[in-house]
Design brief:
single chain, alpha/beta, TIM Barrel, eight-stranded parallel barrel, 10 helices, about 20% strand, globular, binds 2-acetamido-2-deoxy-beta-D-glucopyranose, polysaccharide degradation, endochitinase activity
């Protein structure tokens, strides 16, 4: 009896720890919105109730020693002529439903680079004053205060994105938290975001497991993907990691390149990732393909 009393708290602890390790966690879905005029409105995306994060994409030009930043929202509206300021109402509606709205920098196209620490400082000032804080006479998305900045840098030039992350994170210390997120490709380390991610300043990292045959899912085989996931989650310090996925077979450069059918995601892939203490959920490219394929709706209960 004495021995039992002595050891039962320990046994209870072991049981709790064991349950924690074996239990899947509730994750979030993050989605890119902005690059297809036929994907529905930002408000529709948020009203779907499917997403915790929407990344407004993309700021396709910036930096390069002070070139004028260009926001491109494809067929949605024309930021250059002030045609997107009405999105403020939608952004605020998203936020009132607990959906974080971020501005995404870069993308696969576009023309961007950071020439120096000073250039990074100028870009950071521009971003701060036009999106997550500050003030400016020409805010492309109007007065709404965005929740953060997403780094989708894909051009292989990593210079000074670590500076940009540090400068943006310093704005957070002024009272308004600026969420920082990043979308590296799955081969580790990432050619464009490697040094930036080494700062350890990112809240969420959504790793792109598509358009990357060396580390993506392929016809029932999740081994390369799970091995890359394990490398990422053990090598980079970040708030949480998301599995970045194409929302349909049409969402990738080569059709199907990394697509994980919903049933395979829930039965094969998620059990291999959602035990990680820093697992955050899945990221989808993009809202357009998610609407076409009804992907989120089919997997949300398991993410
Ligand atoms: C989308 O998936 C959900 C969950 O499986 C299902 O209930 C719904 O009917 C689907 N919608 C369409 C349009 O296929």
């Amino acid at each position: 009896m004495a021995a039992k009393l002595k050891f039962s708290p320990l046994v209870a602890l072991i049981l709790i720890a064991g349950m924690g390790a074996g239990m899947s966690r509730a994750g979030n879905i993050a989605v890119y919105w902005g690059q297809n005029g036929n994907e529905g409105s930002l408000a529709d995306a948020c009203n779907s109730g499917l997403y915790a994060y929407v990344m407004v994409s993309f700021l396709t030009s910036f930096g390069n020693n002070g070139q004028s930043p260009v926001l491109n929202l494809a067929g949605h509206c024309d930021p250059g002529s002030g045609g997107c300021t009405g999105l403020s109402t939608e952004i605020e509606a998203c936020q009132s439903q607990n959906v974080k709205v971020l501005l995404s920098l870069g993308g696969a196209g576009g023309s961007y680079s950071l020439a120096s620490t000073d250039d990074a400082q100028s870009v950071a000032d521009y971003l701060w004053n036009n999106f997550p804080g500050g003030s400016s006479s020409s805010r492309p998305l109007g007065d709404a205060v965005l929740d953060g900045i997403d780094f989708d840098i894909e051009n292989g030039n990593p210079a000074h994105y670590d500076d940009l992350a540090r400068i943006l994170s310093q704005y957070s210390s002024q009272g308004k938290k600026v969420i920082l997120t990043a979308a590296p490709q799955c081969p580790y380390p990432d050619a464009s975001l490697g040094p930036a991610l080494q700062t350890g300043l990112f809240d969420n990292v959504w790793v792109q497991f598509y358009n990357n045959p060396s580390c993506q899912y392929a016809s029932g085989d999740a081994s390369s993907m799970l091995s890359a996931w394990s490398t990422w989650t053990s090598s980079v310090t970040a708030g949480s990691f998301y599995l970045g996925l194409p929302a349909s077979t049409a969402a990738t450069e080569t059709p199907g390149n990394g697509y994980v059918p919903p049933g395979d995601l829930t039965s094969v892939v998620l059990p291999g990732v959602n035990g990680a203490s820093n697992y955050g959920g899945i990221m989808l490219w993009s809202r357009y393909f998610d609407v076409q394929n009804n992907y989120s709706d089919q997997v949300k209960g398991s993410v």
